[in-house]
Amino acid sequence: MSASKPCNKTVLAGESGCRVVYCHDCRVAELEVGSVSLRLKDDAFRNLSSLIATAVANLDKASLRDGGFYGQDGYHVH
Prior knowledge:
- The chain is α+β, with helices and mostly antiparallel strands.
- The chain has 1 helix and 4 strands.
- The termini are far apart.
- The mean pLDDT is 85.
């Protein structure tokens, strides 16, 4: 982005207090959660998305087990 040209942003998704905005010029996704904003390049945002999807799947699996939460390797998470 040049100093004289504003970013060309699009809201990709959003809910109460949380949204993702994408700048086409910078190729950056901006994750906004409350008053915190995290700007990530395309590939880093995709990696974060994959990481979160894996964490959610593990969370769903953990809720089916007794005795607490377990990580991907099957060990107890503290």
